[in-house]
Amino acid sequence: MRNRVGGFVIIVALLLVMAPARAHHSVPGQFDTSKPITLKGVITKVDWINPHIYVYMDVKESNGTTVAWALSTLPTAMMRRAGLTKETLQGKSGEEVTINAVPARDGSQHLGWINKITYADGHSFSPTGQ
After folding, report:
1. Which CATH class is domain 27-125?
2. Fewest CB atoms within 10 Å of the CB: 2, 52, 57, 103?
3. What is the rounded distance in angstroms from the CA atom of residue 89 to the CA atom of residue 52?
4. What pLDDT, on a 0 to 100 scale, did the predictor assign at position 13?
């Protein structure tokens, strides 16, 4: 009986440890890396949170309307190690930036993953190293 209880405890512990790993999805699993897009607009907000930072950006469409995009990137710890802060990621207020991204695989409108941000002064940041 004692061995069964011990085995049950080990199985439950393993399942609890594995749950977070199963919940996290890879970039290609959530975003369509075969369909890169380029967005030009103004970063309006940066949510410096885990598990991924979100960058919100207003993009002017060809018909003149403005569309809000939510773009995900790496976790805060990885950005800090790269020397970036929320303020450096956001750039100057009102500054137009170009973001190379990939759209959501599930078809969610105006949702993507950042491959590269290029700021008005020419400097850029690429969480994917591209």
Report:
1. mainly beta
2. 2
3. 13
4. 39
Residue in the block written with tokens 């369509």: 32
CA separation for the pair 48, 22 (Å, rounded): 23
Residue 129 half-sphere exposure, CB side, CA atoms within 13 Å? Answer: 1
Residue among 36, 15, 26 nearest 116 (CA): 36
Question: DSSP letters along 6-40, please?
Answer: HHHHHHHHHHHHHHHHHH---HHHHB-TTS-EEEE
pLDDT digits (tens, 9 = 90+) for 90-128: 989 899 999 999 999 888 889 999 999 999 999 998 876
Q: How far apart, in Å, do the first and last CA atoms of the chain sit?
A: 57
Would you list the domain boundaries of the chain? Answer: 27-125
- pTM summary value: 0.75
* pLDDT value for 67: 96
Q: Do 89 and 45 touch, CB atoms closer than 8 A?
A: no
Establish how many alpha carbons lie within 13 A of residue 31's alpha carbon, considering only the half-sphere containing its beta carbon: 19
Each residue's pLDDT tens digit, 1-29: 555 544 444 443 333 433 344 344 567 66
